[in-house]
Amino acid sequence: MTADRPAFATIPHDVEGTGLRRGLLEDLALKILYLHGETSLIQLAEIMCVSLGVVEEIFHFFRHEHLCEVKGITGGVHRIVATQEGRQRAAGLLSLNQYAGPAPVSLVDYTARVRAQSLQKCQIGPKEVEAAFEGLVLDDALRLRVGTAVVSGTSMFLYGPTGTGKTSIATRLPSIYPDMVWVPHAIEVESQIIAVYDPGVHQRNAALEPEDADRRWVLCSRPGVLTGGELTLEMFEVQYNAATRYSTAPAQMKANNGVLILDDFGRQRVSPQELLNRWMAVLERRVEFLTLPGGHKFEIPFDVLVVFSTNIAPLQLGDQAFVRRIPNKILVRHATEEQFREIFHREAASGTRKLKVVPEVLDYLVRHLRDDLKQPFTQCFPRDILDQIFWAAKYLHAKPEFTLELAEWACSNYFFVGVEKQG
User: Fold this and answer.
1) Taking the mean position of all CA atoms in its chain, how far away is CA 123?
2) Helix locations, 69-226, DSSP H
3) Residues spanned by the domain of 383
């Protein structure tokens, strides 16, 4: 096993090897056949992400039950279509559940796989942290704290004033991990299918997937799920879609073997106390109990690095009993003057800006922020002040420049001026 090619399950060549009920696979195949029309057995195997041997077993059952008919043979492989009886049965199945994608894996296999590729088995050191935070201006003490929290594989509070880069740090945490993990397209629980793989969350590395790997699994970078003010408790439950009549995995399940970020914690539609109560036992036991639409409860591993990012004092969000269960508490402070200057130079040189920074003007900007505006050296200020200069240049159809006048103007447009005198 290597970072590029972690241990994998080989593709099963018969129905028994899939770990699933034959009836579930037969129902899935019939729905796909109904929706796609005339299909070769190879095409059916590709859609279901199973071997030709599995599909041939299903095909023989379909023929015996008069659910399909052969329309021809191409390259020694049958092309089939659903019969009238097959279409009627498929329509009934689709009225109950419209899932017609890759075959799921069993809950037993999913549980074993998540535990085998646990975060806490990953080797992390300063080199990985340095690479992940390339481009960010962070001191060594902060890197050490973050690296220690990642190695713990548990949870952390990133707290401190707004604009100090907490979200930038949090969203880079998944890239610290140098390895990849296997994520299932879907899992089966009590004959119900829950879709897990989400292209919006999981970054697939298809070129590194071995040819003989079980195609029901997708090789991905370790996932990172970001939630913000839109977060509700319902997002942590199995997501049943009444229109499609099947379920998708909740946020923490999609984040398994990766990172779950609760950004702007304390500003969600649900109270922080309710959210903290939801996580208290889970963080301690490292297992999660989910509920299917019919009420059946099932257990999955909870192998997630949970990141609470907030500009609210942590003790205003929860009591000591909960805070104790979050072992890593990392304060992200305002930048020093030296760091502020470095951030400004990097922002000015980044992307399409390529703006020349005049040292005398930057000196003036630093003094103006500190002495006149009484502002701390917040990490987001260089980007935001430069944005003002570039937006004004675009409006005036002029070349962006970093002058004393423009620096002062950008600050006047960005910061509130005289608010305390308005009553």
Assistant:
1) 21
2) 84-96, 107-116, 126-132, 140-152, 166-172
3) 337-415
